[in-house]
Amino acid sequence: MVRVAIVGASGYTGVESIEILLRHEQAEVTYLSAMTETGRVDEIFGRLRGRCELEVEHLDFNKLGEVADVVLCCLPHKVAMGYVPKMLDMGLKVVDFSADYRLRDLEAYEKFYKVEHTDRANVAKAAFGLPELFRSKIEGAQLVANPGCYPTGAMLAVAPLLKNGYIETSGMAVNSVSGASGAGKKPSKLCHYPNLNENLVPYGVGTHRHMPEMEQIASEVAGTDVELLFQPHIGAFDRGILSTVYCDPTRELSNDDLADIYRAFYKRERFVSVLGQPPAVKNVAGTNYCQVFATAVKGKIVCFSVIDNLVKGASGQAVQNMNIVCGFDEAMGLV
Ligand SMILES: NC(=O)C1=CN([C@@H]2O[C@H](COP(=O)(O)OP(=O)(O)OC[C@H]3O[C@@H](n4cnc5c(N)ncnc54)[C@H](OP(=O)(O)O)[C@@H]3O)[C@@H](O)[C@H]2O)C=CC1
Ligand SMILES: CC(=O)N[C@@H](CCC(=O)OP(=O)(O)O)C(=O)O
Question: Gene3D superfamilies, from UniProt (predicted)?
Answer without folding.
Answer: Dihydrodipicolinate Reductase, domain 2, NAD(P)-binding Rossmann-like Domain
